[in-house]
Amino acid sequence: MRTSESISTLVEQALTAAQGSGALPAAGEVDIAIEKPKQAEHGDFSSSVALSLARVMRMAPLAIAEQIVTHVPDSQLVSGASAAAPGFVNFTLSNEWLVSQIDRILEAGSAFGNTEDGKGQRVQVEFVSVNPTGPLHVGHARGAVLGSGIASVLEAAGYEVQREYYVNDAGAQMRVFYDTLYARFMQAAGKDVPLPDPAYPGEYLAELAKDIYGENQELAEADESEVKAKISPVALERTLAEIRSVLSSLRIEYDNWFYESSLTEEGTLGKTLELLEKNGYLVERDGARWFRSTEFGEEEDDVVIRSGDQIPTYFGTDLAYHYDKFLNRKFDRVINVWGADHHGHVSRLKAAVEALGGDPDDLTIILNQIVSFKNEGESVRFSKRKGNIVTVEELVDEVGADACRFIFLSRTANAQMEFDLALAKTESSENPVYYVQYAHARLAAILRNAAEQGIGSDNADLSLLQHEAELDLLRRLVDLPDIVHRAAKNLEPHHLSYYAMELAKALQRFYEQCRVISDDPAEMPVTKARLRLVEAAKVVFARTLDLMGMTAPERM
Q: Mean pLDDT over all residues of the chain?
C-alpha cells in the first residue's frame, strides 16, 4: 500500500471513530485527499479533509481537525498527528516504520514502486506516428520520450499497456511520396521524368530512390504502375526500419505497428461508416460523405469520404482507427500523444468517439509543446546546410539517450521547453542528468568498497539509523510508489525527474553527514545498518532511472 494511502486509511478510521462517539456529526461519503506539506515542520503528510467537511458538519474546520487527531488509532506508521489552522491534520512518519521499509524495498527489488491502481484495465498509448516519409527530426523527440514515459508509469501502476505506432501508409502524403519516389527512381536511371506537382521535398527521397535503383535497374524499362508497385513497399519498409532503429537508440520500443492501409483492407472503415450512419451522424452532401460534427458543438461538419475519388480523408481514417481501438480491440482507455499543431483535431475526434457509442473521456489526447535548443548560451537553429543537428539520430549521437530522456521528461507536456545541448554534455553536478546518475554510481562504489573489505549488511540492526540525514533519505525512498501513482493518474512522467533530483539531494546530504564505512571496529554495527540503507537506496535509484528509460551506471 502506498504511504499516502495508509495515511488516508488512518484519517478515515479517525473520522468513523469520531462520528461513532458523537464528537463529529455524520457527513456521508468523504473524499480524503492526502498531500505533502509545503513546510517540513508541518510533518510528512497532511489532509485538508476538515476544511471540506466544515460546511456539511456546520463546524469550524479547526475543531473538526482536532477531533480527527484525537481519534487517530495507534499505528506504527506515524509518531504523531496534530491539527493546524485553518483546519489541516498533519502526520509525522515514525522512525521505526521508516527503517522497517528498508527490508520491504530490498524484498521488492526492481518491482519497488509498483502499484495496483490500474489492475484489470487495458490502456493503449499511441505516440510519434510520424508519416514514414523520412528520418525523424528533433521536433519528434520530445513526443517520443513523453509517450514512452507515460506508458512506463502506467505499466508500473498496474495497467496492461500497449505501445503503438500508427503507420500512415495510405494517405495523401504517401501518394505524393510514392509519386516523387517514382520520378526520382527514373531520374536515377537517367530518364527525363519531371517531379510531380506537388512533390515531396528534400534529399532523403532522392538518395533512397538511387539506392533502390541500384538494386532494381531492370525496372527502369517497366511501365509506371509496375515500377511503383515494386519500389513503393521497399521504400516504406526501409523508411520504417530507419525510424525503428532511431527510436530504439532512444530506448523506445513498440508492442504494435498498426498500418493505416489495414483499415480499408480489413473492412474497418466500412464498418465505421455503417455505425455512424446507423447512429445518425453521417450525411451525404455534394457527392461527399460528412460526419455531423456540429451535433457535438463543432463549428462545421467534417468530410470523411471525398467526392469524386471517394477516398477517405485523414479524419475519416482516424475515425476508423479509433473504432478499431475501442470496438475491435476493446481498450478501456486510449491515450494519443500528438504535437501541438494538432490542437484543432482534438474536440472533433472526441465527438467521433461519442458518435460511435463510446465515452469521450476514455480518449485522452496529450499535446506536447515545441522545444527550442541552445548551445553555450546561444539559440540553435537547425539547418542541414549549416551542419547543425536536424535529426533525432544526430541529437542522440550528440548528447546521448540518457540526457535526451531525462531532459524531455523534466517538464510537463503543455510547457514549452529549452534544451541546453552544452549542459546536457557537462560532467558536473550542474547537469541534472549527470547528478542523478552519479548518485547511483556513488552508491555502487560504496558497496564495492565494502565488499572489498569483506563487510556486509547481514544481521544489521536497523534501529541504529537515527541520524536526521539517514531518516530524510528514507523518507524520500518510500515516496516512489506515491510518485508512480501521481504520474500515472495525471499522465505526467515529469514527476519522476523531479523525484530523482530530490532523491539525489537527500543522498548528497546523507553522504556528507554520515560516513558509511568506518575504520573503528566499535562502529561496525552502524556501518552494517548504513550499508543496508545504501543497498535500499541503490534499488530505488535504479528503479527510478529505469522508469525514465535511463541507464543506472555502476561507475562514472
A: 95
Q: How confident is the model over 523-555, as pLDDT tens digits?
A: 999 999 999 999 999 999 999 999 999 999 999
SS3 of residue 51 by DSSP: helix
DSSP 6-74: HHHHHHHHHHHHHHHTTSS----S----EE--SSGGG-SEEE-HHHHHHHHHTS-HHHHHHHHHHTPPP
- Give me the sign of the Cα torsion angle 470, 471, 476, 479: positive
User: For residue 101, what pLDDT band results from cuts at 50, 70 and 90?
Assistant: very high
pLDDT tens sequence across 418-452: 999 999 999 999 999 999 999 999 999 999 999 99
Q: Which residues contact 101 (CB under 8 A, 6 or more apart)?
A: 474, 477, 478, 536
CA nearest to 405, candidates 430, 428, 432? 432
Sign of CA dihedral 272, 278, 283, 284: positive
Mean pLDDT of 454-479: 97
E strand or H helix at 367, and its extent?
Answer: strand 363-368
pLDDT tens, residue by residue, 292-343: 999 999 999 999 999 988 999 999 999 999 999 999 999 999 999 999 988 8
| pLDDT at res. 212 | 97
Which residues have CB under 8 Å from 448's CB, separation 6+?
Answer: none
Instruction: Decide if 509 contacts 546 (C-beta within 8 A).
Output: no
Peptide bond into 86 cis (omega under 30): yes
C-beta separation of 436 from 501 below 8 A = yes
Contacts of 131 (CB under 8 A, 6+ apart): 168, 171, 173, 174, 177
Q: Output Rg (C-alpha) for the chain, integer angstroms.
A: 29
The three cell numbers locating residue 415: 510547457
| Alpha carbon 48 to its chain's center | 29
Closest by CA position to 465, among listed 10, 7, 97, 27: 97
Instruction: Flag whether the pTM goes above 0.85.
Output: yes
Residue 280: count of CB within 10 angstroms of its CB = 10
> How many other C-beta atoms lie within 10 A of the C-beta of residue 283?
13
Cα–Cα distances (Å) from 186 to 51, 182, 200, in that order, read 75, 6, 15
Q: 412: which residues sit within 8 A by CB, 6+ positions away? A: 492, 494
CA dihedral 336, 337, 339, 340 (to 10 degrees): 80
pLDDT given for residue 427 in this prediction: 92
Check if the beta carbon of residue 73 is closer than 8 Å to that of residue 508: no
What does the pLDDT look like over 343-367, one tens digit per residue?
889 999 999 999 999 999 999 999 9
* Overall average pLDDT of the 218-239 stretch: 96
Of the two residues 201 and 179, the one the predictor is more confident about is 179
Residues 6+ apart with CB under 8 A from 106: 532, 535, 536, 539
From residue 521, give the alpha-carbon distance in Å to each of 176, 306, 455, 514: 77, 83, 11, 16
Look up residue 122 and give its amino acid: R
**How is residue 328 annotated by DSSP?**
I
Q: How far is CA 46 from the centre of its chain?
A: 27
All domains in the chain, ordered by first residue: 3-93 (3.30.1360.70), 122-170+256-368 (3.40.50.620), 172-249 (no CATH), 429-547 (1.10.730.10)
Q: What is the DSSP letter of 137?
A: B
